[in-house]
Amino acid sequence: MAAYVVNEIWVHDPATFQTYVVQVPPTLPPFGGRYLVRSGASEAIEGEPPGRLVILEFPDRAAAKAWRASPAYQAILPIRDASSRSRVYVVDGYAPG
Length: 97
Prior knowledge:
Layout: E1 3-11, H1 14-21, E2 34-38, E3 52-58, H2 61-69, H3 71-83, E4 84-92
Antiparallel strand pairs: 1-3, 1-4, 2-3
Helix pairs in contact: 1-3
């Protein structure tokens, strides 16, 4: 079952954050990951939206967690943490039953 990594991001240092943004895409293919949402225009319907929203799709939860723990992603994660505040979670997809 597909799994999704949801990242709500509040950027406080856009220039530094951009160096993180350009390094993420090459880390995804080895784990079957792909962008579904990459901070497009958003409109709050209820509550306050984050500054940016990213949703990544992976084949399953194990692949999502393996990507997150990978040396390639771990090497760039400190850049994101230094330039933004995030709330990140993984959620399983829906399987009609």
